[in-house]
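Troubleshooting: if your tokenizer reports a length mismatch, compare your output against this known-good record of 485 residues.
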Amino acid sequence: MSISKYNSIATIDYLADTPETQYLERKGITEQGVKPTKVANEIIGMLNADGGILVLGIADDGMIEDLNTLTEEKRNDYRRLVFDMIKPPAYVKLEEIDYGGKLLFLYHVEQDYERMFSRSDNEEVYRRVADSNKGPLSIDEVNKLQYDKSIRSFEETLRFDFEMTDLDTKTLDEYREQIYYKGTNEELLLKRNLAKIDDGKVILKNSAILLFADDPDKYIPSAYIRYVRYEGQEALSGKEFNVTKDEKFYGNIPSLIKAVRKFIYASLDDYYYLDPEQGKFISVSEYPEDAWLEGLVNAMFHRSYNLQGNCIYVKHFDDRLEISNSGPLPAQVTVENIRIERYSRNPRIGRVLSEMGYIRELNEGVNRIYKSMERSMLSEPSYSDRNDTVTLSLTNKVAKHEKSIPNVVLDRITDNWKSLNETEKKIINHLLNNFICTVPQLIEKIDISETAIRSNLAQLVELEILERHSEKIRDKDAIYRFKKI
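Known-good structure output:
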């Protein structure tokens, strides 16, 4: 049960035990250097980012302290800091909580789209990135922050033409259950700043339509996802047109995630990964789900929906998967620093997706894509930013294997694994990653004599694991590959 009257997600477990995120910061009063100025800097960072909750009186390790142990004068310093230390005037609600006789302060920080906030005494500007506060910002970083705030306004736009009968109440109910909210749909949308009261009526914003409309495309053109499967490694046209599947998916963002996730999972091929300890092959999808699903969610989260006419594309080639969304990278983000530098283009959408569990650690998505590909021993993901379109590209191993290692050969490798010597095992692993090899390539890779290499290759050919391709008896450029059955 929430201990806050302003935010239903603010249970004591959430405040004390949840790892700090873009939207949650803990400050213990006994921590060295936790003064009102430090708390003010953190609140400024949240104001300039996506808002959130700062809880004063809970340490980083979750230990619940008691602000009653402070003097009344000190408590008043914390009560006044928003008014005394932050400019321009900020919309921050201070909620004083009595939890089991212990006093906690909850600062409810609302994200502001138009204004930039700073310290009133020294002009320093801060911005929250993931679970930490960045700053004071340089002059260049301040200028970039002002630019990025100016392009965030689309999700805040009120839609007076929206018909409330077009709401997807089932998805709204799922969201309500996720954050333990007991009020009505309209109250929930207002609470999360996804709607406003205008002339006595609840008017939804674009962010609410993208998240909870039955068909957002009715109001925001191209708010759909298109999957295209190509036969080969490039897109061809005319007589060589090579599209084998072309599917469009419509719906709000949560329902799109579910539908496209299921579809892509069924569309991917498998390749075999050799466990060198056991000598067994493990069937692995051509791309790890953590990578492509995170890329898909990020595309929906960070897309520039004001650039209408271009949907999100998932292009599936034999050797790679490309996920593209409209809009350039935010001003301070480049393809070189994208793994560490983050910024939320649609923070209202991002917050809901985070609370619904679609973004497990807000702003950590790109890093998770890299780690997931690395764990699967696949090439690093790559990003491009061209013509107002950001594209994530994931490369597989299926194309290298040509999906052509017969099961009977895989069984022979497994059956003979324990009796193979280390050189023979290295040759097999090399072929699993490169598909073909020659004697000179193996000499360079394994660093043993030509005679030893040829002897080990001959043994693998005799076991009918490999086959040799050359008409010459002593051809140094003879090609070796896994045997075709």
